[in-house]
Amino acid sequence: MLRLSIGNDKWTDEFETQIEELDITDLWTLQVNENNLENGGLKFERETFGSFRCSYCRHHWSSSVIHIRFLITLDRPCKRGIVNMKIAKQSCKMCNCGVMEKPQISDENIKIMIKNLVLKINRTFYEKEKDGRHLRSINYYNEPKGPHDKDHCEDCQEGHSYLEEPWYQDVSHHKETKSQQGLSTALTVAGVTVGLGALALACMAFSNPKNSSKK
Ligand SMILES: [Zn+2]
Ligand SMILES: [Zn+2]
Q1: Ligand nearest, relative to CA of residue 59
Q2: Domain 3CxxC-type, which positions (predicted)?
Q3: How far is the CA of 161 from the centre of ligand 1 (A)?
Q4: Are 119 and 203 within one domain?
């Protein structure tokens, strides 16, 4: 069942649930902003799928490019982390009334977006989850990712440019696994060597009395 959400509680609740699963003592909060985000902090930007309804002419549309921006800061001495978040609105192109509407985003895509955010926090501030993958949002509308209507997108109109980081670029994990494999091979070889050494000693111990009796 496709459940949609406009309110901000879903985002903050989901964030609290997922951040609690990290093994950390810092206290994190997520704030959903209506206005533009201040500068400062670690930038994290993503796109998701969602739908809109024009409050003026009731036209309904879906979008595969809804920008979501996060600004992440951690005050280590105070053990407090804050994530400021902004979801880009869009305006209707049918009536061109210019009213910026909030998107409806499914619970699943909220979960996915928060999962990506928490992964980013865990990697950046706690150097964990090196092998986690960023997840793609679910496109319920089965629409190909067509050209983004920048003229009716709040963030594009305000001149934000977006650079998507590759979804999976973690080469370090593979290196780590290889070096771990190398280490365990070396340990096994060492173990066999030690084993052979002990066997040789045992053979000597058995053969020595005979040798000495012959002499
Ligand atoms: Zn309209
Ligand atoms: Zn845009």
Answers
A1: 1
A2: 47-159
A3: 26
A4: no
Which helix (DSSP H) or strand (DSSP E) does residue 60 occupy?
strand 60-75
Query: What local confidence, expressed as pLDDT, does residue 55 receive?
Result: 96
Structural domains counted in the chain: 2
Range of the domain at 79: 4-169
How far apart (Å, rounded) are the C-alpha atoms in residues 161 and 135? 21
CB 52 within 8 A of CB 63: yes
Please report the pLDDT score of residue 127 as a whole number. 81
- 94 alpha carbon – ligand 1 mean position (Å): 5
Ligand approaching nearest to the C-alpha of 91: 1
Does residue 182 surpass a pLDDT of 80? Answer: no
Closest by Cα among 149, 154, 135, 142 to 88: 154
Token pair for residue 115? Answer: 């999962």
Rounded mean pLDDT, 76-98: 96
Which ligand does the CA of 160 lie closest to? 2
**pLDDT attached to residue 140:** 76
Q: Please choose, from the candidates 135, 81, 68, the residue with its C-alpha nearest in 3D space to the C-alpha of residue 108.
A: 135
- Å from CA of 99 to ligand 1 middle: 8
Residue 130 Cα to ligand 1 middle (Å)? 45
Alpha carbon distances (Å) from 186 to 68, 113, 193, 198: 47, 42, 10, 18
Using the mean position of ligand 1's atoms as its centre, give its distance from the Cα of residue 91 in Å.
8
